[in-house]
Amino acid sequence: MERMVVTMPFTANDYEKLHQLMNSSPEIRELLQKLLDSQQYTISKISHEVRNPLTLIYSTFQLIESSHPETRDFSHWSELREDIEYTISLLQELSAYNNSEHLHLSTFSAQDFLGQICLSFAASCVDTDIEFSSLIAPDLPSLTADRLKLHEAILNLLRNAREAISSAGSIRLEAVLKDQMLQITISDTGCGISPEYLDTIFDPFVTYKPDGTGLGLAIVNRTITAHAGTVTVTSSCGKGTSFLLLLPIT
C-alpha cells in the first residue's frame, strides 16, 4: 500500500526561525538562500505559466460577453466570471507573496509618504458611514525602504479595516517615532478577530473571509519582516482590531 506523507504548512513563525538560522553562519546562510531562491523561482515560473493562458481565456470571455450580451443571462455565467477573476487574483497575490522579500530600496520622507496614503484612503471612505482619521507626527525622519511594497502593505491593512466594518465605524492611522523605530498603528472599530485565529492570520493561505485568498496578511508580514521590522495584532470580537508596525529608521 502506498504511504501518504502529510506535511505541515510553513508558517510565519517558521520564516522568522529560518531567518534567525540564516544569520547563524555564512555557510548556512548561503545554502538556505540558494534553497529559497530555487523555491521562489519555481513558484514564479508556475504562476507565470498558468497566468498567461488564463489571461487569454478571460480576454476571450470578455469578448464573447461584449459581442453577445445575452450570455450574461446564461445559467452559471456570472459564477464562471467570478471563478476566473478569483483565480487571476490568487495568482497575482501568489506572485506578490513570492516577491515580497525582494526590496528595491530608496530614501524618502516618511511624513509625506504616509500623508499620501492617508489622503488616498480617505477618498475611498467618502459617501460611506466610515470615519477615517490620521495622526502623523511632524518630526518623522526620512525612511529607507521599498516604497511600493510598503505602500501596498499599509494599504492592505487599511482595506482590511474597511472590510471589517459592516455598517458605521471608524478607522485610524497613527505614526510616531519611538526608540529609533517608526511606529505605525492602524486600528478599526470593526467586527474583530476571534482569539483562536490570531496565531495563524499571518500564515499563507489561511483566511477566514469567504472570498479571501489567504495571502494578503502573509504578504504584509513578509514585507515588513524583509524591512527588518515587525507586525503584531491585537483584537477583540465585536470591538475592533489594531495592527502595530515597527520599522527601523536607518
Task: Summarize the structure in words.
- This protein has 250 residues and is an alpha+beta fold.
- The chain folds into 2 domains: 12-98, Helix Hairpins (Orthogonal Bundle); 106-248, Heat Shock Protein 90 (2-Layer Sandwich), CATH 3.30.565.
- 47% of the residues lie in helices and 20% in strands.
- Helix 5 (147-163) packs antiparallel against helix 6 (216-226).
- The chain is globular.
- What Rg is obtained from the alpha carbons, in whole angstroms? 21 Å
Residue windows where pLDDT falls under 50 for at least 5 positions: 1-8
- The end-to-end distance, rounded to whole angstroms, is 58 Å
Overall geometry comes to globular
- Biggest sheet, in brief? 5 strands, mixed
Tell me the series of helices and strands, N- to C-terminal. HHHEHEEHEEHEE
Q: Count every helix, treating DSSP H or I runs of 4 or more residues as helices.
A: 6
CATH topology of the largest domain: Heat Shock Protein 90
Strand fraction equals 15-25%
Mean pLDDT: 83
Brief summary:
This protein is of the alpha+beta class and 250 residues long. The chain has helices spanning 12-22, 26-67, 77-98, 110-124, 147-163, 216-226, and strands at residues 106-109, 130-136, 142-145, 169-178, 181-188, 230-236, 240-248.
